[in-house]
Amino acid sequence: MATRLPESEFDARLAQVRGRLADTDADAATWFGATGIEYLTGFHHIQTERPVVLAVTDERVEITVPRLEVERVESNPRIDAVHHYFDYPGGAPIEVAAGMLEGMGVESVVSDADGAPGVMGYEGPALSEFVDVESQSWTTRMRWEKTDAEVGLVRESAKWANLGHRYLAEYTEAGAHPATVSQRASMEASRAMLDTLGDRYSVRVRGSGPVRAGYISGEETALPHGHTPNETLSEGDVLITGASANVDGYNSELERTMFVGDYTDEQEHYFELMLEAQTIAIDALGPGVPISDVDRAVWDYFEEQGVTDLAQHHVGHNIGLDGHEPPYIDRGWGEYEHVDEGDALMAPGQIYTIEPGIYTEEAGYRHSDTIAVTENGVEWLTYFPRDIDSNVV
């Protein structure tokens, strides 16, 4: 039962970026992105208008944070020094970060960005106003392939997502409101997860439980990113569900198309088209497979069935610390500008959501399963039943 990333993972990641730094002329590597900082150090924070800047040299790791993050980061064993400013804009965060770099003897950096991202109204100077900056995307690429430890965390996430989804199906009935059913299922699954794991659960959430389970219903299902409608469920409604669980920052994705009561012949038709498309995609997965070929196989099937006008997105995406990560299972991935030729191919350790969907004017039909590419094939991480009769509530 994997519930926490071992310390050795962070040691290996820092060693890898230091190896890459040694191949450059820069004095340090820096990160502004919250996910990259978390990936290298384990310090996780919410990206707001208050910049956080991580600096790595061949000998030291230092960080600049707003005052409100000091206590959360100062005990981190991988960070040698913490610098802080009071707040934004009065605290001049980039100037403080530049002072941190000067104290480390840094005159040039390779960075994931030339300054903090402009979120929540942030407007600040570029880092290149203070030091020489070249770009790098090292951690973004490193995250494509997960280690065995990372796969174990996603596998654990899928287990609790499955429980949340079972509660969701159990509590769904005509006359219920989808928002309150979602809250109840999420709460019950989170309670079971926290009671089972105890202090082995690594705190990663604020104000909610680690399991998230819910769905959209009615006409909103015709929109791939629809909202939960403010209306109770009725017999004949189509649902598109979703469940996941946060396990030390890692996530899985489980989605099903479900029906409240009996389904019609038309609904069964579209469900079976979607299910076959997902089966085609899963059967095409494996190490060394061109990523774009998987999406193309599904598109060819949709063309054969005459339903390309009902498709609105590609087959899926990588998943891990973020809900969406590259590579993307898209027909255009092969033509995408890759750093290495092998980046166009699936590789062991990549974990994909497989979720081709079709959307009529009345409803949408989409399953999503989380599947890891292995040395010899694939491993299904999610496992809720996929057939139509198992998805009637």
From TrEMBL:
A Gene Ontology molecular function term of the record: aminopeptidase activity
Domain of life: Archaea
UniProt keyword annotation of Hydrolase present: yes
Residue ranges of domain Peptidase M24 in the record: 154-375
Domain Creatinase N-terminal: 13-88
Keyword DNA repair: no
Keywords noted in UniProt: Aminopeptidase, Hydrolase, Protease
Gene3D superfamilies attached to this UniProt entry: Creatinase/methionine aminopeptidase superfamily (3.90.230.10), Creatinase/prolidase N-terminal domain (3.40.350.10)
Protein name: Aminopeptidase P family protein
